[in-house]
Amino acid sequence: MADHASSAPHPDFLDKPTLSGDRVLLRPVTVDDVPALMPMFQDAETSRLTGSHDDGELDEARIRTWYDTRGTQDDRLDLAVVEQTTGNVVGEVVLNEWDPDNESCNFRICLVPGSYGRGLGTEATRLIVGHGFQKLGLHRISLEVYAFNPRARRAYEKAGFVTEGVLRDALLWEGTWVDATVMSILAPEWFRREQADGA
User: Fold this and answer.
1) pLDDT > 70 fraction of the chain, expressed in percent and rounded
2) Who's near 23: CB < 8 A, 6+ residues apart?
């Protein structure tokens, strides 16, 4: 029986690229980006939409240590989202939970408050997903989105993600159970979309 994983290309997650679009630039995230990203951690609505439980104390030193080490990670890709027109860091995109045996990754994105509704998230998603398939050789990229975040779900659908199912009562938020929708996009689907868009 052939070992499929050994014959598959090994993604180079140590290569932290810069990816440029019309609205956003994605580049390696660094500790210097922490001041711009802190509103993501301080905003109650962002915490709700991402299902981020915390203990009420924000440890900025721990956050700085986290971002200071992103450039050396060989199993994930963390990129800052920079708005092209202003040069401001407005969020981050991440490919993580790499499964080498199944050539798959999880995807997540978070933008700072006030950055929504301008197409920044949709373009950032397309850029990093395209990199995942075209450069890293991934076959599947998946995510979960909570039922109370329809805006994010629409953005994922625009980028080509397809609903696979529902994780019932996946999150307990302030006494209420919330479902999570599992979505994914596969490499063949991505390349078909790219071919159609380029036709």
Assistant:
1) 92
2) 83, 84, 85, 118, 119, 120, 123
